[in-house]
Amino acid sequence: xxxxxxxxxxxxxxxEIMEIMAKKYDKIENLMQRVETNKCRNPREVDDYMVWDxxxxxxxxxxxxxxxxxxxxxxxxxxxxxxxxxxxQSGCPQSIRALSEKLRRNYKNVYDDLIALERFGLIRMERVxxxxxxxxxxxTIVISLK
Length: 146
Prior knowledge:
By secondary structure, the protein is α+β, with helices and mostly antiparallel strands. It has two domains: 9-62, no CATH class; 76-144, Winged helix-like DNA-binding domain superfamily/Winged helix DNA-binding domain (Arc Repressor Mutant, subunit A, Orthogonal Bundle), CATH 1.10.10. Helix content is 55%, strand content 21%. The protein has seven helices and five strands, in the order E-H-H-H-E-H-H-H-H-E-E-E. The strands form two sheets. It has a three-stranded antiparallel sheet. Strands 3-4 form a two-stranded antiparallel ribbon. The longest helix has 15 residues, at 11-25. The N and C termini lie close together (5 Å). The model has no long low-confidence stretch (mean pLDDT 84).
């Protein structure tokens, strides 16, 4: 039994990924030379090259994480699942306080659940001024009994 957490990246997110690659390596040709000519031993650089090259050629990008069902349900309570589901369906809230009000839950409990979901890699807390805004890193969660 396993759980698949799937995130499909939209155009804005793909542009951000390519900008990060450009800051890190300057040009794809530089990275290509490091990977192909220098017999790169760094698997991260090989992965970066493959992703960047694919994105430049118009590929869609999807990240899939597979974990055991036991591990998933060890950390994901029904309230955390409700919170994650709301973030996936509704997008980013204005603030954690607005999110807690929308879900009719205590602010501290929502905040604690968001921190747990962030540690588990299901959301990212983005800083906007003094606020922290939760953003879902999953589009789909598939539970498989295989």
